[in-house]
Amino acid sequence: MAYCYRHPNRETFVSCSECGRPICAECMTPAPVGQRCPEHSGKPQGARRISSGVRRTAFEGTGALVTKALLGLNIGIYLITAFQGRGLNAPGGRLYFDWLLYGPAVANGDWWRLFTSAFLHANLIHIAFNMYFLWFVGAAVEQALGRGRFIMLYVVSALAGSAGALVWTPTAPTVGASGALFGLLGAALILERQRNFVLGGSALALIVINLVLSFAVSGISIGGHVGGLIGGMLCTLIFSQFGRGHAAYSRLGLMSIAGVLAIGVASVAVAYFKVRGYAV
Fold this sequence. Notes:
By secondary structure, the chain is mainly α. The chain is built from eleven helices and four strands. The protein has helices at 54-57, 65-84, 93-99, 103-107, 113-116, 124-145, 147-168, 178-193, 203-216, 222-239, 254-275, and strands at 2-3, 11-12, 29-30, 35-36. Helix 6 (124-145) runs parallel beside helix 8 (178-193) and helix 7 runs parallel beside helix 11.
């Protein structure tokens, strides 16, 4: 039994013919084919007409602002590390080595590395692939969740990814936004399970393909990917009150915020207990 995405306490057998989200009788608008939800009904919503989906594929307007900011921040930091290092394909320098994730350094008190390492990349291919993936997945997830939820999701996923990387390989220097990106994939999977097809129903397939690549290709942080995926899924489940509501539309109360913070704190705690024996 599905529940209306705007009224989580109302059961329904009807879904929007445009986006597939379940809708109750109050939210239905007849269309030439089937019924449509308020966002796709063509009716003005408040002061403006909502056009969900258009900004997901167009790098324009005011959509996906956080995703765009993250793209700019990652690229800017990469250019700084490339300038300080040995060139555009060989970043390095003080910023790079002060921010990368390394278990013994974290054990000695460099806790910021759990987050800052998510903004570093090893070479051009690494950042190009991650930034494409960030735009492809991040813009859609941000459009569905909104900026506030998206920021919390990204931060928690980055921390969970770092914790996973330290659990798997505590003494291997690790960089990259992959943990946070896998968290976005985990969020997309939960959203699509709730019939909000942010990636056209392909979230599970993308997760499987990327996990297979993580195990098959050497030099990839398996722990970072798995940790970020778990963190992102848990965070989105909290947004949906563990299935009692919708991740994108349920009220984000104090308990939900506390739950998201708890995931971040737990990630830091896991990292601490894993690396505490490596302190110099």
